[in-house]
Amino acid sequence: MLHRKIYQLCSEGREVWIFLRDQQRWIECARILEIEGDLVTIRYETEEEDEICAWEEMVRLESIGAVTQKLSNVSKGNTELLVSDECPEAEQIRQHPESNPD
Predict the structure, then answer these.
(1) What is the pTM of this model?
(2) Cβ atoms of residues 2 and 13 within 8 Å
(3) Which of 29, 33, 59, 84 could form a disulfide with 41 if both were Cys (CB 3.0 to 4.6 A apart)?
(4) pLDDT tens digits for range 56-83
(5) Among 7, 12, 30, which residue's Cα sits nearest to residue 20?
(6) Distance between CA atoms of 59 and 31, rounded to whole angstroms?
(7) What pLDDT, in 10s, does the model give residues 15-34?
(8) One Pfam family of this protein, by short name (predicted)?
(9) How far apart are CA 58 and CA 74, in angstroms?
């Protein structure tokens, strides 16, 4: 099932985080470029001191232990979230009492 999801993410071109079991490390903000046989080609960037390095890496499909993707971003600042008038009340985000400035 993970293999099918990896194929789907490759075709969508979405940004993902990949855990490599054999190396026990996460690759962050990667894009799956191609899957050929059991090899997966991924591209990602790392920031080291004063430079950004771009990497393209080929990994075996079976060495991928997990794939995650970011669903959304929400600012931590004290900002008003925009909510559609059509959003059902049960799905609306409620304010916590301690975050209310009143």
Answers:
(1) 0.67
(2) no
(3) 33
(4) 999 999 999 999 988 777 777 777 767 6
(5) 30
(6) 13
(7) 999 999 999 999 999 999 99
(8) DUF6679
(9) 33
